[in-house]
Design brief:
This protein is α/β, with parallel strands linked by helices. The protein is built from five helices and six strands.
């Protein structure tokens, strides 16, 4: 089944969903952008679980394109799924890694039994991915994922990002 794709403009930390995806970095120990907002609003429980992951299975951190879940703390969700997007490169095509973020996040969501999953536009902030290209990759990856998730909601921070995703979700 292909999930229903929906678009929302706003702050992903205000969403209500089974799982909220974090555009994390490989340290799993927080950062700016979506990551900072999720930890601020979700509270210290999320970081505590991230630290525990670093102390156990993810000693070297989470690899680019992979995903792992923690509690959602005080967010209106059951889980946060952390995924690490690739830094955009003009000289190297890293789009398979960006697609992997969506596919792996949905695989984790399936393992958890999540029905609704909210995604930010991974890699389009500090990591510099052009929004139109990122939107195309995101939508194609979700459509190809073969997930049991019923709703994938893209939560876009600004008008431009929203318009870019709207081009591809029709
Ligand atoms: P990355 O490091 O993967 O590029 P960022 O968090 O810097 O991640 O940015 C990813 C995208 O998320 C950008 O388009 C940015 O504008 C957007 N963004 C930043 N804060 C939020 C938020 N609170 N909710 C939704 N999107 C956000």
């Amino acid at each position: 089944m292909t999930p229903t794709l929906t678009l929302v403009q706003g702050d992903i930390t205000e969403q209500s969903a089974d799982a909220i995806v974090n555009a994390a970095n490989s340290s799993l120990l927080g950062g700016g952008g979506v990551d900072g907002a999720i930890h601020r609003r979700g509270g210290p429980e999320i970081l505590a679980e991230c630290r525990a992951l670093r102390a156990s299975r993810y000693g070297k951190g989470l690899r680019t394109g992979q995903a792992v879940a923690t509690t959602a703390g005080r967010l209106d969700a059951r889980w946060v799924i952390h995924t690490v997007g690739p830094v955009h490169s003009a000289g190297e095509d890293r789009s398979a890694l960006l697609a992997s973020c969506y596919r792996e996040s949905l695989r984790v969501a399936d393992e958890l039994g999540a029905r609704t999953v909210a995604f930010p536009a991974v890699s389009t902030g500090v990591y510099g991915w052009p929004i139109n290209d990122a939107a195309r990759i995101a939508v194609e990856a979700v459509r190809a994922a073969g997930t049991a998730v019923e709703e994938v909601r893209f939560v876009l921070f600004d008008d431009r990002a929203y318009a870019a995703f709207a081009e591809h979700v029709r």
